[in-house]
Design brief:
- Helix 3 runs antiparallel to helix 4.
- The chain has helices at residues 3-10, 47-56, 75-83, 89-99; strands spanning 31-34, 37-40, 59-60, 71-72, 101-102.
- By secondary structure, it is of the alpha+beta class.
- It contains 4 helices and 5 strands.
- The chain has a domain at 27-102.
- A 5-stranded mixed sheet has the order 3-1-2-4-5.
Length: 117
């Protein structure tokens, strides 16, 4: 975080991003997000499931590069949600969100590597 970011945080100048209006159903491989949860769209997502996720607050990720850190929802639970009847969607989504986990951040060291010849 730079000095400018620290200054904005200290003075509480930051603004939360507004939720975008719902768009068309995203294509396979797109990322949809809700707060700090992220789902990768898989094959099999019907228009009905998309409308359910939109009503729950999910929107397609639109900021690139997105530096925020998300908890990824397991693809197996999302596939289960896509295949389930509409009565079970809410319960399955709650289970999937509880199972979401943060991906570990990979950082490379800043030390120079010495190679002996």
């Amino acid at each position: 975080m730079g000095a400018y970011d620290a200054f904005r945080t200290m003075l509480d100048i930051r603004r939360r991003r507004e939720r975008r209006p719902a768009g068309r159903r995203p294509s396979i491989g797109a990322k949809i997000v809700l707060d700090d949860f992220r789902i990768t769209v898989q094959a099999g997502m019907s228009e009905g499931v998309w409308q359910f996720l939109v009503q729950a607050g999910f929107r397609e990720a639109s900021h690139r590069p997105d530096r925020r850190h998300y908890r990824d929802v397991p693809p197996s639970l999302i596939a289960e949600l896509f295949d389930a009847p509409p009565e079970e969607w809410k319960a399955l989504l709650m289970v999937a969100l509880q199972e979401a986990s943060k991906r570990p951040r990979v950082r490379f060291g800043t030390r120079s590597v010495r190679v002996d010849s």
